[in-house]
Amino acid sequence: MTKLIIFDKDGTLMKLGHPVVKLADDLINEFSVRTDIHVPKSEIKDAFGIVDDQVDKLLGAQTTKAIVSSLEKLPNGDAMASWLLKKIEHATSDNEVEDIEIIEGVEETLKSLHDKGYLLAIVSADDNASMDLFIDKYGIREYFDKIITSDSSDYHKPQKELVQLIMDELNVEKEDTMMVGDTEMDVELGQNAEVRKIVGVLSGSGDAQDLRNADIVLNSVAEIVDRLGL
Question: What is the pTM of this model?
Fold first, then answer.
C-alpha cells in the first residue's frame, strides 16, 4: 500500500516553460548520465544565463560561443558543449519568457493527497533558493514532509540514497513508496531505490520513450488520484 509519494519538481510539479529552460533541464539530465560528478542545477542554469528560472535575454545577451565557453568550464564540459551545439540549433530565438508556473491541477492534487494522509516529498537538483521561491509562491510547503535539494544532500539522481534518506526519516519502507517524475533519471532513481511504483509524467522534458521503464505514464500529476485510485 502506498504511504509515501516522492515527486521531482521541474517538469513534474512546475512547468518548464521556455524551450531554453527545457533545454537546460535536458542538459542537466544528460550531464548526470555521462558523469558521477555532481553539479548543482544552479551552475548549469548560470551557464545558460538562467536566473531564478527565467531566461535573461539569453540569445541576445550572449553568443552561442560564449554559452559553449561557459559550459566547457564545467566537469566533462567538452562533451556537454558538443551536445549543446546540436541541441541549440532547435531552440527559439525569442528573448522573453514568462515566469515558470505550477502545472495545472498540481495544487489541488497535492492538497487531496495530503488530506488523505499520504506522506509527500520532493527530490530536486535545484538549490534551496529556487525551491523556496516555488514552494512559497504557491503556499504548498505544508503539504510536504520532506524536501531535498542540491544544497541539502551530497547525493544526486539517480543515487538510491536520495530516496533512502526520505524513507528512513519518515519511517516508510520501499514497498510503500512511489516515485513520480518526468525524466529517465527520475525513473532510474525509483528503480535504484526499488520503490513499489514508478510513475512517469509527460508534463516535462521526458517523452514516452524516456519514460518507457516507468510502471505507468500519465499526462501529468493531476491524473494521479483518479488513474491510480489514491
Answer: 0.71
